[in-house]
């Protein structure tokens, strides 16, 4: 959505507000319409939650936050933007009258994306003047964190609208899943619906409480589904013989009377009371805010795990984070300014780097410096490929001065001076600064070049020797850093 | 299962082998019976996978691995152990004849736990001599990683057997969920069955491929279910008004024709072929071994996230890991031996501490030393409570010598000497050693006591001053550590 400057969101409930937060934090101005007086308060709360989560989720800095504007009417929104997300209640007539109001004011190129969880796009667009502009974009709560958005076109939706809008969702970190055939409830909600129904029977018949059912999910198959879904998991359960074996073994169970498929539970007051009071018993010790925070923390950490493991939803995060990241020294070596220490590290302090007080723990200072060393190695030619094929630098000695504190989410950067660089030896000095300028720590490292096969000291290749020499020649003209050559306990 | 020395496993397929691995790595001897000649090879492979995963999952050392013994018959197994896990094919007659053979040789106190995914325990125990000894203990693949085990008793099962066996499962890191009413397929498989059926329809009707369905799960609600399950998630979707609001809003959708509830898909050759070939297309680029490794890595990391966040399945892991951990200095200060450096850190190198070569990265050395510092602080009285209420020690300066390498899963420990300890100053020297004795690194730290409110230097309280003095008095008689007082680049 890089090209979009402004989007509109009609309806600011749980889903609408989640959209607002995701759009806004991606630098897009958002016009919101919701008739409720409480809407601005709730929207701002969801934005706060999203900012809190993104600060932990992303290593890159987000673009400047978009402007949040509450509009007095749907048509006011429609006049101001290129894309409208519709998130009004799930009734066809309410949605259709919203589209009518939008179309009365909008440019014909405006695209309308409905967040409906189940109504067919062909029905949604039935009465529209320009039905080709409508598609379903069904997201999942919390919209600012979960990547999935189901994309469904109706019989009159333009292919181009589907393609272009999908790209825009990818640009704001989402995973658009294009569902080719229209079907009520699309894919995910059909699956959820079947589980929900079965679960309600289990509660209704006193087989299990809501808590026991949740535990049966989250201590078991829920952990599998966060990464592989249903079919890939079963492929593994089939062992070496894979899916064919699994089906031949377990397929017949389908005909066993294991589910309440033939019945629909009636929503009596008694059942509603049972589910609600069990849910209170299960989760009532946490406020909704506390549960939201816990959920978001877990989601953030799952997504980061998957990003590190290059799997599933982590791939969406990886692409998104990389698309945001500013480049450090993405220029040629020859264009590098060697007349001052070199920028070698830029990041934000992630959540897991902090102690219980929210301050970065001491070991993470060395992690920053280690990254800065890696960048300096890369600059002189000892990059990833070199490390895989030729050799590397091993740190043999480190000295750190801890000078000031930094908190989660704050931005930090490091610069580096080469103190000595000849033959097998590389002596570096790093400064780590807060974005506000404060010097947080310094580090001094002695590194030795090693051959990765023998893991013993060895000479770098010619390119590395040459570049290291050039940086060293330039940097030895710089003043000697304050705090160099100290032993622990020396007088300041 | 601390009290159990030997268990038996009848049937060594995917589930049986998973049980074998979990039992064995908990120090329990396991007698296995499986008629297949391939069984030993497969069981050993699953054990390898489990060891690989546990090395990454646990910070504590596992007990000495149990003995793996393949038995020639079911009755041989039955003679040798106190608990038998039955994991033979899902046919009542096969299971019943296994129980008959077990009962012909077993002591009457032997407990039989069936891994059935759906057969009622009352049916399983119908023909048994001692039906009170049978219960269902339904685990989830991979059994060595997923904590859930559904515990279901039949009409004749002894309450005592249910309670005692559940405790044994808790002791080996599992989460026994006692299901009070018998129902075919219990809880989890009823939910899975309903989703599986719906998913097969979606494939059958060409609405979505297996990959699209898996993506709809793992980019969306699967991430929620790994932590909260169904009801708690929906409680949040209801916003502040919680579950009652959610039900009143979404309950009526249950009556919409959103699922194929009324039909059962027929397992035609065509459908089997469609599912299998789509699954090949989706996942065929990975071997089953590769997929298993990826799945286990993700599960390990999810469980660790949940442990850190003190949530759901992470709580089972936390208890399990803590129950394994050896105690460091759990004795009174007065009983501590001060005549040599003090043991301050014992751990195994976790997966995420390693570089792509499997070696511990440089920043993690400081993390070990930081933990050792924390333990030394705790020894002299600056423990968690002190830090929360009075003050703490901040590291102002660090010197590290990197002397040798260590790999993922290897055990390491640190000991600490107090070099100076008076008033606000604490000067420490740590040695980090491999379990094989090699010295991996040393660290020297200057710490200053600070008041947590002003975050400025301050005096420790009397207890800390006194204990620090006692350790310092004793340690200053020790030889000065080799490598102390170095600046980076000093000649060795």
How would you describe this structure to a colleague?
Two copies of one chain form a homodimer. With 492 residues, chain A is α/β, with parallel strands linked by helices. In chain A, 42% of the residues lie in helices and 19% in strands. An eight-stranded mixed β-sheet of chain A has the order 3-2-1-4-5-6-7-8, sandwiched between helices. The first copy, chain A, has a five-stranded antiparallel β-sheet with strand order 9-11-12-13-10. In chain A, helix 12 packs across helix 13. The first copy, chain A, is elongated, with a radius of gyration of 28 Å. Chain A starts with 5 loop residues before the first strand and ends in a 17-residue tail after the last helix. Chains A and B meet through strand 8, helix 7, helix 8, helix 9 and helix 10 of A and strand 8, helix 7, helix 8, helix 9 and helix 10 of B.
What are the key terms here?
3 domains; homodimer; 492 residues; 42% helix; N-(1-d-carboxylethyl)-l-norvaline Dehydrogenase, domain 2; Rossmann fold; 19% strand; Thiol Ester Dehydrase, Chain A; eight-stranded mixed sheet; 16 helices; alpha/beta
User: Into how many domains do the coordinates of chain A divide?
Assistant: 3
CATH architecture of the largest domain in chain A: 3-Layer(aba) Sandwich
Morphology call of chain A = elongated
Number-wise, the strands of chain A total 13
CATH topology of the largest domain in chain A: Rossmann fold
The description of the largest β-sheet of chain A is: 8 strands, mixed
CATH superfamily of the largest domain in chain A: NAD(P)-binding Rossmann-like Domain
H/E topology pattern of chain A:
EHEHEHEHEHEEHEHHHHHHHEHHEEEEH
The secondary structure category of chain A is alpha/beta
Over the alpha carbons, how many angstroms does the gyration radius of chain A reach? 28 Å
Could you state the oligomeric state of the chains shown?
homodimer
Amount of helix of chain A: 40-55%
Record the strand order, biggest sheet of chain A. 3-2-1-4-5-6-7-8
Chain pair with largest interface: A-B, 148 and 148 residues
**pLDDT averaged over residues of chain A:** 88
Strand fraction band of chain A?
15-25%
**Number of helical elements of chain A:** 16
Q: Low-confidence segments of chain A, ≥5 residues, pLDDT <50?
A: none
Distance from N terminus to C terminus of chain A (CA atoms, Å) equals 53 Å
The first-level CATH class name of the largest domain in chain A: Alpha Beta
């Amino acid at each position: 959505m890089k090209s979009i400057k402004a989007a509109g969101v009609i309806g600011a409930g749980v889903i609408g507000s989640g959209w607002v937060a995701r759009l806004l934090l991606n630098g897009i101005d958002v016009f919101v319409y919701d008739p409720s007086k409480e809407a601005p308060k709730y929207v701002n709360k969801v934005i706060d939650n999203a900012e809190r989560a993104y600060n932990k989720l992303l290593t890159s800095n987000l673009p400047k936050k978009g402007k949040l504007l509450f509009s007095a009417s749907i048509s006011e929104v429609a006049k101001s933007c290129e894309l409208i997300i519709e998130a009004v209640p799930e009734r066809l007539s309410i949605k259709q009258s919203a589209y009518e109001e939008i179309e009365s004011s909008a440019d014909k190129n405006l695209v309308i994306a409905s967040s409906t969880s189940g109504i067919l796009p062909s029905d949604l667009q039935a009465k529209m003047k320009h039905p080709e502009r409508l598609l379903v974009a069904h997201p999942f709560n919390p919209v600012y964190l979960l990547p999935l958005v189901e994309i469904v076109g109706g019989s009159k939706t333009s292919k181009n609208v589907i393609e272009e809008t999908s790209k825009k969702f990818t640009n704001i970190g989402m995973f658009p899943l294009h569902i080719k055939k229209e079907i009520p409830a699309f894919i995910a909600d059909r699956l959820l619906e079947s589980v929900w129904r079965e679960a309600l029977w289990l509660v209704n018949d006193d087989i299990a409480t809501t808590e026991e059912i949740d535990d049966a999910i989250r201590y078991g198959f829920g952990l599998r589904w966060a990464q592989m879904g249903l079919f890939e998991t079963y492929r593994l359960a089939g062992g070496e013989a894979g899916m064919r074996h699994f089906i031949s073994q377990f397929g017949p169970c389908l005909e066993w009377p294991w589910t309440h498929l033939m019945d629909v539970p009636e929503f009596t007051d008694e059942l509603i009371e049972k589910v609600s009071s069990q849910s209170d018993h299960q989760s009532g010790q946490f406020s909704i805010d506390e549960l939201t925070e816990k959920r978001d923390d877990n989601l953030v950490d799952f997504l980061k795990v998957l990003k590190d493991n290059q799997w599933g939803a982590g791939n969406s995060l990886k692409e998104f984070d990389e698309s945001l990241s500013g480049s450090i020294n993405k220029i040629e070596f020859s264009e590098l300014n060697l007349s001052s220490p070199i920028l070698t590290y830029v990041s934000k302090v992630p959540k897991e780097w902090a102690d219980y007080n929210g301050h970065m723990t001491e070991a993470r200072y060395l992690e920053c410096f280690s990254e800065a060393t890696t960048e300096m190695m890369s600059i002189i030619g000892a990059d990833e490929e070199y490390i895989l094929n030729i050799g590397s630098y091993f740190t043999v000695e480190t000295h750190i001065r801890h000078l000031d504190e930094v908190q989660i989410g704050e931005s930090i950067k490091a610069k580096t001076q080469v103190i000595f660089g000849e033959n097998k030896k590389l002596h570096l000095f790093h400064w780590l600064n807060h974005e506000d300028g404060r010097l947080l720590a310094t580090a001094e490292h002695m590194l030795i070049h090693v051959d990765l096969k023998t893991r013993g000291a060895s000479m770098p290749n010619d390119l590395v020797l040459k570049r290291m020499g050039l940086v060293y020649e330039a940097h030895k003209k710089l003043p000697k850093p304050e705090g160099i050559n100290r032993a622990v306990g020396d007088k300041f």
